[in-house]
Amino acid sequence: MKIGVITFPGSNCDEDTVVAVERVGATAVRLWHKAHDLEGSEIVILPGGFSYGDYLRAGAIARFSPIMQEVVAHAKAGRPVIGICNGFQIACEAGLLPGALLRNASLKFVSDTVRLRVENVDTMFTNRYAKGQVVRIPIAHGDGRYHADADVVARLEGEGQVVFRYVNAAGQQAPDANPNGAINDIAGIVSAEGHVLGLMPHPERALDASLGSADGLPFFESLLARVAA
Amino acid sequence: MTRFRVAVHIVPRRGLLDPQGKAVADALRSLGFDGVDDVHVGRHIVAEVRAADAKAAEAQVRAMCAKLLANPVTEDFEIAGVNAA
Fold first, then answer.
1. What ipTM was assigned to the predicted interfaces of this complex?
2. Which range marks the domain in which residue A200 is found?
3. Rounded to whole angstroms, how far apart are CA atoms A6 and A28?
């Protein structure tokens, strides 16, 4: 399977993401932001980083990159798109996911390993996790406070679109387990149709227990499981 | 066509947690500005545009705000001034 990884000016997790894709046996396709072709990628990943220096708002300018026209068309055709960290911000700015990512409530950039509870495993991105499983995944962001209008949040919750939630070691939601003040402790969401996923944490940085955590591997393995199924 | 400088204020939507504004308000109070109830930190953008008249210049910038300059989910904007450049 071919998985495209886009490099915007200022992306800094693109190579890590390529490594993750190759680690699970998929073929990574490096895509440049000025290109107009996804080169047959079945899944497209918008990686983390600081595209266009986060000018104006994180993700606001990247959304107008030439390749984003192709990414939006890809998503509108029902094909999978994943936004990780800055990629989540870009996906929201591009209207592929509802809501927005605001400045962390602490006003501090947070680089840490956090615990997430996998709330929905019936997605093509999470089928290798167990429902309610608590995983350890790194975060590194200054603008990660997910926000959406109350009716949008209610819909996300009601439809199982909240996929990852920040929790404490006991797997419970708690104010001090939420690193950025995100509404309802939301760390990751999926689109209503189920093929666009955005999350602030970095599963591509959790591939190996000797480097802290291997809990990100099932995320990438899930992508393959869908095709095998 | 005339050149105009159109200024726009973009501010966090009222009621949304604005930690930056709160930090500034706290700092002002610690300086003795006891009358500070709240502070909102936003952006001030000046666009230099060509347009037939001031009304058209303002309309252009309003469209820019709706499409890019402001995030419709979290921010509000208001035109602060339209002046011939």
1. 0.84
2. 2-228
3. 10
